[in-house]
Amino acid sequence: MKKALSMVLAAAMAFGCVACGSTGNSKESTANSNTIKIGSIGPLTGGAAIYGNAVKNGAQLAVDEINAKGGLQFSLRVEDDENDVEKSINAYNSLKDWGMQVLLGTVTTQPCLAVAPETAQDNIFLLTPSASAPEIVAEDNAFQVCFTDPNLGTAAAEYIADHNLATKIAIIYDSSEAYSSGVHDNFKQAAAEKGLEVLADEAFTSDNKTDFSVQVQKAKNSGAELVFLPIYYNEANLIIQEMNKQGYDAAIFGCDGLDGLLTIKGADTSLFEDVMLLTPFAADSSDELTQNFVAKYKETYGDTPNQFAADAYDGVYAIWTACEQAGVTADMDASDVCDKLKEAMTQITLNGLTGEGMKWEASGEVNKTPKAVKIVNGAYVSME
Questions:
Q1: Using CA atoms, how far apart are residues 353 and 372, in angstroms rounded to an integer?
Q2: Burial of residue 1 (number of CB atoms within 10 Å: 0-12, 13-18, 19+)
Q3: Cβ of 170: how many Cβ atoms within 10 Å?
Q4: From residue 234, how far is each of 53, 63, 230 by CA, in Å?
């Protein structure tokens, strides 16, 4: 009797351990036996959630398309970091526990600056769709789909000068944020080289980003014809409101951080008319790849995709192309996958949503051509 009871208890304990060891839903757990596990980290909640959710959606569309082809399969798990460094590190560790073999992320720059060294130490391949600081790709395991901040700042100055948008410039930027400061510094240097005159250069910090009356007043008094905003869209919205309040009718030019203005709930979107931003993706482009992506995104998520969704979509396809190039298989551990992918990334060419003939340097930087869009009648329209 005691022996029989012991056998029953042993069986029950064994079953309990199996149940405790399972992760995710049954479909994901089954797929993991023959699937490359891609982890992603980004803000799914909080003030930057539009970026993280766009990356999640764009990446999932690409994963679904690739899996439908047969052959190498992908499994995607996305963790929310709320654009917070500590939470991003925790998310990274959670994905490692899951068995992540490749990291698509993080989405925003500051968390990625903290996570990137962890991936280098663990030798896990990192491809960020949108974190743009050059320090992120300091190690050979890290690559970017987006432009680096220096390249973006230089490209913005060149575009303004080459298209004769203005010669007298004011800049308002976040000196406490790596993305904003990086774009700002190279913009100033390139602006001087292109003959643009920076008449006002006004900073704010994360501790003081609700009242921009002083910065706008100084820009207005300087006589600047164009205000360059290398910042995120929430702060840009407040600056644009303040410009309207002060009757300051200057042109506005920003970078990819402004992609999100039209989604701000309760905002007076009429104030955003004619705002320009540099981006590698325009949803109204007539090429077949873009139109198919936009149609599928709208059908699936009920919204128009932004640049972050497009960067993530291209990022997943870059990972898949590099896996095919290197002969990556699902039974490889993360370190072996990383060793193969960091070599293969410098050998592939990708015709994606955010650029034709995209190639990657050993430095981790991508080569592609920026585009500019303007808000016209409440929608982004490509600029020539």
A1: 14
A2: exposed
A3: 26
A4: 16, 30, 12
Could you tell me the residue range of the domain that residue 130 belongs to? Answer: 33-147+289-369
Same domain, 97 and 192: no
Domain boundary among 279, 306, 333: 279
For residues 141 and 116, membership in a common domain is answered with yes
Query: At which of 246, 279, 312 does a domain end?
Result: 279
- Amino acid at site 289: L
Residues in the chain, total? 384
Residue 3 domain-assigned (yes or no): no
Q: Where are the alpha helices (DSSP H) in the chain?
A: 2-21, 26-31, 49-68, 85-98, 109-122, 149-162, 178-193, 213-222, 233-245, 288-301, 307-326, 334-344
Q: pLDDT tens across 104-125, in order? A: 999 999 999 999 999 999 999 9
Q: For 91, what's the count of Cα atoms within 13 Å in the CB-facing half-sphere?
A: 28
The structure's pTM equals 0.77
Burial (CB < 10 A; 0-12, 13-18, 19+), residue 33, is exposed
Closest CA to 200 of 177, 227, 233: 227
Co-location of 249 and 342 in the same domain = no
Q: What confidence tier does 263 reach under pLDDT thresholds 50, 70, 90?
A: confident
